[in-house]
Amino acid sequence: xxxxxxxxxxxxxDAFHAPGTRAHRVVQAxxxxxxGVALAILGVELVFxxxxxxxxxxxxxxxxxRVVLLLxxxxxALRVWxxxxxxxxxxxxxxxxxxxxxxRGRLRFLLRPGPLVDLLTVLxxxxxxxxxxxxxxxxxxxxxxxxxxxxxxxxxxxxxAESAVVFEVLFAxxxxxxxxGGVTLTFAERGVNxxxxxxxxxxxxxxxxxxxxxxxxVVPQTGIGRAVGGAVMVAGMFSLAMFAGVVGSTLLSAILxxxxxxxxxxxxxxxxxxxxxxxxxxxxxxxxxxxxxxRPGSAGAGDRTVVVLAPRPRPRDAPDWVTWIEGDPxxxxxxxxxxxxxxAVAVLVGDRRKTPQEADGTTILTxxxxxxxxxxxxxxxxxxxxxxxxxxxxxxxxxxHARAAGADEIIETTRLAFGLVAHAVAMPGAGEIMxxxxxxxxxxxxxxxxxxxxxxxxxxxxxxxxxxxxxxxxGVRNPNTGEALLPPxxxxxxxxxxxxxxLADAPRLPPA
Length: 512
Prior knowledge:
Blueprint: H1 2-7, H2 10-17, H3 22-47, H4 51-55, H5 58-82, H6 87-90, H7 95-110, H8 113-122, H9 151-162, H10 164-189, H11 199-210, H12 223-261, E1 272-275, H13 281-293, E2 306-310, E3 323-326, H14 332-337, E4 345-348, H15 356-375, E5 388-393, H16 399-405, E6 409-412, H17 413-426, H18 430-438, E7 444-449, E8 456-457, H19 458-469, E9 472-477, E10 484-485, E11 493-494, E12 499-504
Parallel strand pairs: 1-2, 1-4, 2-3, 4-5, 5-6
Antiparallel strand pairs: 7-12, 8-11, 9-10, 9-12
């Protein structure tokens, strides 16, 4: 299993797990065609059941159905084989754990509602399980997001389990009413009512009457039988009312838990956590989405989960593709709801409704709380890369404090905005150009690794990268110190461990 995950061709991995690639679109089109053929075969068998034998096409339909199921089986096998459990890239543990995670991760993937329905459909290849072919109707729902959060159903099951004692009492009461009513009716009607020949008939009548279904196949004919029937009807009304109350309160409790902890119960890793929300946040979220959608074919491109953790209900202007968690980013318990220990990046933004000092104070406290929470979380120490924290600072004086609190990168938005305005005044047109470079569209600034295994002078590096990769280098950055030289002296030796700062229309160098 471990070896299979390593040797799976990238083309197959893209075909089943990279929505932005051409291979994935081709495979999805083929799968949609197979679903259409399978449903057509099922429809023909249902609509023309009597004419199939007369036309002599039953054997042909059976063969075609088995071929389609075999192709579905191959598709499921390839989908599971090429799936790489995300925790393998997040944690650095021993060989035994990695082997076990290869198995566990693929089982978790296979037991998601969507793949599970596909698996049950394929089991129709077994003659005794041919009735499972009807499940292929659910394959029309493969693209719905309801199947992406299978733990929601686990939460519902847990809520019902917490009310197990109440349900036991209710069912015991129902059983008592059914037994007493059924046995009493049997004694009262047997020998008089031809529809009541045994205790089983009485019990069936009591159950049907209690649930207010009333098929009418058994009708009491004696006075005592009618009295028993009236008592069972009244008991049925009370029972239904009690069931409605218990089930309603149980579902309400489950829904509240799901709304509060819906993301913590999920399995997403490598997501982005946005701590805070302000009036301009939708623009920030849209820019985040555009940045990742501009990288088709890369891991997680265009499909990176974005979680907003803010101490307010979800506003109307929040994009529907964002996962919203109502909570305080300065509380560790609320950070756990967003699973920051398994996130890739945390973005801390200031609240424009407050003064710059108050907003920056919340940002600094959030950064400190993040680092404190991660230090106290054992799984965070097993990550390959630590959580990267980007903090927005409104007052430049607080940049140093945010860095000391644990922020990896500080964005001084006020200084940056005013600097662009002042530069546009002194150099008309330059500010607009810098704004285009700072946002997605046309040329952008990127960081990439030096694609060589030896050091070389900066001047030579610029010429080689322009000729071989078509990028314009205007600086380098030392990832160990965070110091950027824009640009360094032409004779400065650039180490292979350094990062290159360059302009391009898309990322062209290995990611930093």
